[in-house]
Inverse folding.
């Protein structure tokens, strides 16, 4: 899976929990929760969405690595490579 | 048309989910209704057979108007209006044909300008005819409601509702939602003598337990600390049930369960506070599942009528937005609101030693007509104790 495909999945997971947000307009290097006012329940729903889409387990201590869009792509790319 | 909030007056039927001849059971979603708070899925309160659909998609009708008729299954059921008067500010959308006097449920509805002036005779006649007193705008010169006006409204309600020129809008009408919030909050501040209490709670044990627990759990079963807070509120209400319920007709009506309204701030503006039902009877896993589902549906516009109408107390967790304390405004006709600030590391003395602990401010806004500060203080103390034993929540 390419980085672009992973980024697309991340965008879709974010749109599912924040349908009113234009994900393409977000700064990929900035904290997501700050940018779109996500609460902890939204964020957990987002992480569960990634888990279901990619069939990857995301341990609790790793969740902090998903704070930005770029962080999501980097972390998930690494996990996918490790799993394959 | 069910009342889906303290100050809802009209709703627009967006779509039916049933058709004549369909069998329905209590809890089924039968219609989509648009309100100032978005499109809501309306559940039915009784079992039966859909006989006719009276209101058509696109029609805007007042709260209390009959949307459809339902033929019964032969079983004796509690009347919708009686249920509404006892336990909930919300009437039901559909009525049984066996109960014609209740075509328009009596709603213990809010009255923006204060109490309704209704004589005992007029009130009794309204009950006989099933007229919602709050919908009467044609009043006597002194503002009182007479038997004649009640009978007039009853007659007009029997005619099929006329199509409204209002076209359902997609998404939320934010200015309308702002008006609804303004009306409810102004009423709250005008009528409810609030008192406020705050206590600071050490969250070390709860957070340590949570970290250990989450380390063992898959992401789909993970717990958030807000679930511990909500569960602690539900259990603490056992010690002070007078904080759980409604102030209606100048008396306190206890809630029929612990249904905690969770304040959810919408990104596009405004807020909703849908209820999680029977929190005192759910374990943390069930509560967490409910929270994830509820917030997701609030964001995507799929809340249900019972969730908007059934809250018996509200919890707001504004700490997630960075504030240390929140002194909330009670959502009428509820009588209490619990607020949690953000968790902050503070130096505190524990067993004679200064240490740094994660602390959270828990606040109570309560209605002084129903409870006193002493009881409110015991409630906050109970929450604090419960959070020191998170494994028992």
């Amino acid at each position: 899976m390419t980085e672009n495909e992973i980024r697309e999945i991340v965008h879709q997971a974010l749109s599912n929990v924040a349908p009113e947000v234009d994900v393409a307009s977000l700064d990929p290097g900035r904290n997501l929760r700050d940018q779109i006012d996500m609460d902890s329940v939204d964020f957990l729903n987002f992480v569960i969405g990634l888990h279901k889409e990619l069939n990857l387990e995301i341990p609790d201590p790793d969740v902090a690595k998903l704070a930005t869009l770029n962080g999501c792509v980097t972390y998930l790319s690494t996990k996918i490579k490790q799993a394959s | 048309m069910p009342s889906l909030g303290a100050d809802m007056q009209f709703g627009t039927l967006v779509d039916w989910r049933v058709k004549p001849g369909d069998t329905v059971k209590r809890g089924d979603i039968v219609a989509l209704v648009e309100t100032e708070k978005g499109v809501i899925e309306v559940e039915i309160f009784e079992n039966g057979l859909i006989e006719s659909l009276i209101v058509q998609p696109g029609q805007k009708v007042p709260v209390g108007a009959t949307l459809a008729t339902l033929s019964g299954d032969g079983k004796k059921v509690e009347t919708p209006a009686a249920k509404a008067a006892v336990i909930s500010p919300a009437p039901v959308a559909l009525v049984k044909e066996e109960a014609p006097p209740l075509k328009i449920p009596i709603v213990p509805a809010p009255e923006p300008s204060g109490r309704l002036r209704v004589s005992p005779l007029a009130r009794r006649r309204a009950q006989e005819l099933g007229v919602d007193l709050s919908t009467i705008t044609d009043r006597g010169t002194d503002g009182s409601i007479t038997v004649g006006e009640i009978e007039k409204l009853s007659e007009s309600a029997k005619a099929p509702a006329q199509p409204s020129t209002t076209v359902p809008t997609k998404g939320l009408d934010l200015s309308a939602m702002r008006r609804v919030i303004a009306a409810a909050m102004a009423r709250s501040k005008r009528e409810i003598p609030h008192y406020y209490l705050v206590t600071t709670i050490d969250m070390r044990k709860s957070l340590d337990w949570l970290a250990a627990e989450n380390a063992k759990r898959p992401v789909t079963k993970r717990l958030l600390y807000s679930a511990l807070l909500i569960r602690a509120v539900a259990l603490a209400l056992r010690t002070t049930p007078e904080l759980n319920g409604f102030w209606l007709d100048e008396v306190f009506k206890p809630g029929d369960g612990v249904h905690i309204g969770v304040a959810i701030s919408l990104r596009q503006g405004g807020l909703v506070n849908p209820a999680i039902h029977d929190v005192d009877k759910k374990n943390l896993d069930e509560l967490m599942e409910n929270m994830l589902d509820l917030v997701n549906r609030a964001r995507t516009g799929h809340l249900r009528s019972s969730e908007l109408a059934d809250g018996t107390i509200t919890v707001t967790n504004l700490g997630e937005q960075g504030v240390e304390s929140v002194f909330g405004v009670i959502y009428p006709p509820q009588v209490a609101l619990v607020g949690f600030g953000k968790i902050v590391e503070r130096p505190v003395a524990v067993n004679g030693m200064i240490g740094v602990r994660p602390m959270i401010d828990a606040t109570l806004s309560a209605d002084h007509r129903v409870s006193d500060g002493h009881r409110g203080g015991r409630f906050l103390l109970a929450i604090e104790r419960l959070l020191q034993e998170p494994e028992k929540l």
Observations:
- Chain A has a mean pLDDT of 92.
- The domain at 3-17+29-83 of chain A is CATH 1.10.1200.10 (Non-ribosomal Peptide Synthetase Peptidyl Carrier Protein; Chain A).
- Chain A touches chain B at residues 17-21, 36-37, 39-42, 44-45, 47-48, 51-52, 57-61 (CB under 8 Å).
